[in-house]
Amino acid sequence: MPSVQDWTRNVAAATLGIVITQGVAQQAAAATPAPGYSDTLYVEGLAAPTAIAFLPDGRLVITEKGGGVRIAENPPIADAAASAGSIGVCTASEMGLLGVAVDPTFVTTGRLFFYRTENAGGCGSAAGRSNEIVASTLASGQIGTLTSLLTGI
Predict the structure, then answer these.
(1) Which long-range contacts link 71-76 to residues 24+ away (Cβ below 8 Å)?
(2) Residues 70, 82: contact at Cβ < 8 Å?
(3) What pairing do the DSSP bridges indicate for beta strands 49-54 and 68-72?
(4) For residue 14, with 0-12 CB atoms within 10 Å meaning exposed, 13-18 middle and 19 or more buried, which class applies?
(5) CA-to-CA distance for 10 and 3, rounded, in angstroms?
(6) What whole-number distance in Å separates Cα of residue 52 and Cα of residue 65?
(7) Cα distance from N-terminal residue to C-terminal residue, the chain
(8) What torsion do the CA atoms of 18, 23, 29, 31 make, to the nearest 10 degrees?
C-alpha cells in the first residue's frame, strides 16, 4: 500500500509536469498576436530593459538592468532611445535597475521614482547590498542626483 509520502511525491511530480507543459504552450503562443492585433516595435537597441513608464507628454522612460535610463521621444519608433543617464546598481542574478514610476506631480516637479539594487556596500555578498526606492528629477533629458526614500528592502 502506498504511503502518504509516496502520494505527495506523485502529486508534486504531476503538478510540476502540468506547470512545465503549460509554460511551454504559453511561451510558444506568446510569439503570435491574437487575431485583430499586431506587434509594433517601439524602441530597439536596448540592453536588458526591465521597466517602462509614460511621461505626461507621451515620452517613454525605459530602465535597463545595468542601470541605464533611456528616454524615447516619439514612440512608437524603431530607433534607439536617448540616454538620460545611469544609476549605480548591482547586476548579478535578479538584481539591477528594476522599476520606474512617474510622480503624479511630474509636470511641475519632474520627479521620477526608481527601484534598484543599490551598490554602495558592494555587490559581492547579501550583507553589502539591498534593494531601495530612490527619487530623481528629469530635466533637459537627464536624470539628476538620487535621493534614497526607502532602503533595506
Answers:
(1) 71/138, 71/141, 72/42, 72/43, 75/42, 75/43, 76/40, 76/41, 76/42
(2) yes
(3) unpaired
(4) exposed
(5) 11
(6) 12
(7) 48
(8) -170
Integer Cα distance of 72 and 54 in angstroms: 10
Q: HSE of 22 in the Cβ direction (CA atoms, 13 Å)?
A: 6
Residue carrying C-alpha cell 547586476: 91
The single residue listed with the C-alpha cell 536588458 is 48
One-letter amino acid identity for 23? G
What are 130's three cell numbers?
539591498
Q: Are 65 and 76 in contact (CB under 8 A)?
A: no
How far apart (Å, rounded) are the C-alpha atoms in residues 132 and 116? 6
Residue stretches of the chain with pLDDT short of 50 = 4-29
90-132, pLDDT tens digit by residue? 999 999 999 999 999 999 999 999 999 998 888 888 887 899 9
8 A C-beta contact, residue 66 and residue 97: yes
Distance of CA 18 to the CA centre of its chain: 28
